[in-house]
Each structure stands twice: as C-alpha cells, then as structure tokens.
Amino acid sequence: MEVLVIELKTAAEIDKMAVTGEFVAETLATLSAEAQPGVNLMQLEHHARKLVEDRGAESCYWDYAPSFGRGPFRNVICLSVNDAVLHGMPRDHVLRDGDVLSLDFAVSIDGWVADSAVTVIVGDQPDPADVALVDSTRRALDAGIAAAVPGGRLGDISAAIEGVAVEAGYRVNAEFGGHGLGRTMHEDPHVANRGKRGRGLVLRAGMTLALEPWWARGSDRLVMDSDGWTLRSADGSKTAHSEHTIAITESGPRILTPLSSGSVPSGR
C-alpha cells in the first residue's frame, strides 16, 4: 500500500509561498505579453532566466531530471506550442499568428515553491475553437479550486476538472496532472484531472497543491518529441494548459499565483 507523505503548511508558510507565487504570476504575465508574432521562443527563455536571476529565485526546472524525462532539463520555463502541451523544451522557433502557446513556470524563493501555467493565443486573430479550448482549461481550473475545501476529497477536485472538460467535449488524460508542492516542486499527492467525487484523500487545511487541467482538441493520448521532454497530442491537435498553486485553508481555497485582472487576455 502506497504511503503518502504530506506536509501541512502553517499560515506563515503559506504566506511565504504566496511571495513566490506573486513572482511566478508576474513573470508569466510579462512573458505572455511578449509572446507576439515574430518572437523566438528562446527570447522568452532568456528573459525568464534574467527575471529569475534578478529576483534571486531558484529555478525548479534547471537540471531537473525526473524518471519521465531525458534529463537534465536545461531551461527555466516550459514553452509548448500548438500540439505540444507539457514539458515543452524552449527551442529555436519563431511564433506565428494563431500559435497556441502554453507557458509553465516554477521557482523557489527562500525555500518555498510556486508553480503556474497559462496558455495564450499569439496574434489578434485567434481561431474560435482554440479560444474555446483555452477557456475550458481556465474554467476547469476554477472548478477544481472551488472544490479544494477542508473535509472534501481529492476526487472532488479531479471530478470537478473532468466535468468541465467532458461538458465541453474534450477527453481527459489522467497520466499527468496536478501535484502537491511546497519545499520542492513535486510532493504528494498526485492530483489527476479525472476522478470520482467522494473518493480519495481527505482534504485538510494546510495542504498546498498545484492544480493543472490540460487537454487537446482531439486525442487524449500523448507522444514524446525526440528531445525526450516535449509531450504532444497524438493526433497533432491543438492543446491548452492552465495551472495555479493553491492552499487549502479553513476559510476556503487560496490562490497563491493570482494573475492580475487583464494580465492574460481572454482572446489570447
């Protein structure tokens, strides 16, 4: 039987994670605004490195070498374009009008981690189907957060995320999902994007989780690039990914990576 190790954070520790979360959110907003036609992905990567260095933060991605990747990862942000959805390795690629770009970013500041992801559509003429796709992941994230309350079950979060996807007509892959975090980027528990209400771990105040709904317009299967990291939809369909770090508190869920109003336009 698997034994989960979950550290409940104090209010003061959650406040420290929120400091990291604010920087993560600000960085994603800055880079999202820069993701315009003609911009090379490596420009975004190098700007992210500069922001991390200036803040005195520590990248959670640099030298990351988990069992599922071909490590070490030598970048500070994941940039996934169009059919790529997870672990996108920054590369020499110039963004074009209509590209769907997911930016996933995690750092540690003073020993506390925050992790977040946004998906934007490059340019000013987005495909309505891509807009609907991105919006569905954002709504699913909101639904998952709303279910993160003390006394609930982990399955409540998963079911809430899945419900939005299914209602919108998308299929959900349960292999990669959210996770606990705090002192490190990946801690117990795994938070699947598919599940059943009333099942799983009891949610408690002090738990900190990264919730991250993602899916494609078509297949729920993934294939890996030759770089050993970038995961793409098996049928080449467009993808989207949204993520927040949250804390479960006695008064309800607290978003630790809040995006300021309008920082990621809904059409992008």
What's the short version?
Residues 16-250 form the Peptidase M24 domain. The protein is an alpha+beta fold and 268 residues long.
Describe the structure.
There is one protein chain. The mean pLDDT is 95. This protein has 268 residues and is of the alpha+beta class. 27% of the residues lie in helices and 24% in strands. The N and C termini lie far apart (44 Å). It has 4 helices and 14 strands. β13 (244-249) and β14 form a beta hairpin. A 5-stranded antiparallel sheet has the order 7-6-8-13-14. It has a single domain (11-255), classed as Creatinase/methionine aminopeptidase superfamily (Creatine Amidinohydrolase), CATH 3.90.230.
CATH fold descriptor: Creatine Amidinohydrolase
Number of domains: 1
Number of strands: 14
Described by strand count, sense and barrel closure, the largest sheet is: 5 strands, antiparallel
Cofactor: Co(2+); Zn(2+); Mn(2+); Fe(2+)
Binding site for a divalent metal cation 1: 104, 115, 243
GO molecular function, one term: initiator methionyl aminopeptidase activity
Enzyme class: hydrolase
Topology:
Elements: H1 11-34, H2 41-55, E1 58-59, E2 78-81, E3 84-86, E4 100-109, E5 112-121, H3 128-146, H4 154-168, E6 178-180, E7 187-191, E8 208-211, E9 214-216, E10 222-224, E11 231-233, E12 239-241, E13 244-249, E14 252-255
Antiparallel strand pairs: 1-4, 2-4, 3-11, 4-5, 6-7, 6-8, 8-13, 9-12, 10-11, 13-14
Helix pairs in contact: 1-2, 3-4
